[in-house]
Amino acid sequence: MKYDYIIAGSGCAGLSLLFRMLKDPILKNKKILVIDKSKKTDNDRTWCYWEEGTGLFEAIVTHEWRRLQFLTSEFIKEFHLENYSYKMIKGLDFYSYVLSFAEEFENVVFKQEAIKSIQTETNAALVETENGKYTSDYVFNSTSLFNPEINKENSLLQHFEGWVIKTKEPTFNSEVGTLMDFRLDQKNGATFMYVLPTSSTEALVEYTLFSPALLKKEEYKLALKEYIKNYLHIDDYEILHTEFGVIPMSLAKFSRTTDASELIINIGTAGGHTKASSGYTFQFIQKNTERIISQLQLSGNPNVKMTFREKMFQWYDRTLLEVLISNKMKGKEVFSLLFGKRSPEMILKFLANESSLVDDIKIMSSLPIGPFLSAGVKQLKSN
User: Which residues, in sequence order, are bridge partners of residue 167?
Assistant: First the structure.
């Protein structure tokens, strides 16, 4: 049997695309195959992002904040978001929401199989698994099959361990989230904490680093314990949930398609939709999958070409990452200068690729020209 579309990988990108397809009056009738080696039954991650207004997945937003704070040893900045809300979605809520919706469609088939290869043949895309071969008009791939080489010369790793903790007494202000707390030892690279309270007694506390290598497992736990005790001043708490993750922050080029026929479209991190300088992924996936649906509606061809403005943002992103990788400036120094000089909402716009050219210039003028000019020229030459 030939399918209209195969979605290889049922993580955030694959399921976001599936959900949007099934919401479309025409595409919802297409024959769709979703392949993944594992079932999505674990709460394996938490996505945080900011957006204006009500989004597609508003029904499963765990909590949102209109007030955030940024902290360093030199200053503390608390701010109110005028246009954005900072939102949290739990992985299991997302998986369950999309999968239960997809169950209503007999034309959607799920297979739990390990993918061995994805390739093209005459006018079709072919996915081979441990159990068989499947063909379709297009394959949307979010697996790591086509990922470029990630190494210490071209990449940093964003790695983190997060704990959802619960206290016996009211402790947190659930209206204020800590976006970055840099009051930590920076010996391992850019190092900060997120603190996102969802009630007066419950919060996600996450220890995050941008560095070339992972730490030993016990170091993440020790850092979290010390922060909760010494900075949050909490001694008595219960750990409800833990999560660990690693996100590549890389100058390596992730291709949006894998061959000249453009029948295999890479989505999610595989398609370069993880923002290299920050690791944010969820909202970039939503923008990309929305554009894929628009392309399918217009022409039946799902390939999304990069706009000039997108290329500019990619250059900004690569320049900042080059500065961090080459150690021209520390991450704490860069973000402290930005939050110290500019409106936090402008910074979030910039990080979301939604700022104006005037905003871009203001952001860049907040930073020393020397390290960023040399890094920017190097990245222009590398393209």
Answer: 237
Give the three-state DSSP class for 306.
coil
* 16: three-class secondary structure by DSSP: helix
Of 12, 24, 27, nearest to 57 by C-alpha is 12
CATH topology of domain 2-51+91-147+254-299: FAD/NAD(P)-binding domain (3.50.50)
Find the DSSP H helices in the chain.
Answer: 12-23, 91-102, 217-230, 282-299, 308-325, 331-341, 344-351, 357-365, 369-382
- Distance of alpha carbon 361 from alpha carbon 355, whole angstroms: 10
| Cα torsion through 371, 373, 374, 380, rounded to 10 | 140
Whole-number pLDDT of residue 252: 87
Question: Under DSSP, is residue 59 helix (H, G, I), strand (E, B) or coil?
Answer: helix
Mean pLDDT split into 10-residue runs, the chain, 383 residues: 95 97 96 95 92 95 97 95 96 97 97 95 92 95 90 90 97 97 95 97 97 96 98 97 92 83 92 85 95 94 92 94 93 95 94 95 95 90 76
Check: pTM over 0.85? Answer yes or no. yes
Contact between 35 and 127 (Cβ < 8 Å): yes
The domains of the chain are located at 2-51+91-147+254-299, 155-250, 308-382
Q: Which two tokens stand for residue 308?
A: 């000039």
Distance in angstroms (rounded) separating the CA atoms of residues 7 and 138: 9
Determine the Cα–Cα distance for residues 342 and 344; give it in Å rounded to an integer. Answer: 6
Residue whose C-alpha is closest to residue 71's, from 343, 336, 375:
336
pLDDT of residue 86: 97
CATH architecture of 155-250: 2-Layer Sandwich (3.30)
Measured on CA atoms in the order 282, 284, 288, 290, is the torsion positive or negative? positive
Chain mean position to CA 144? 15
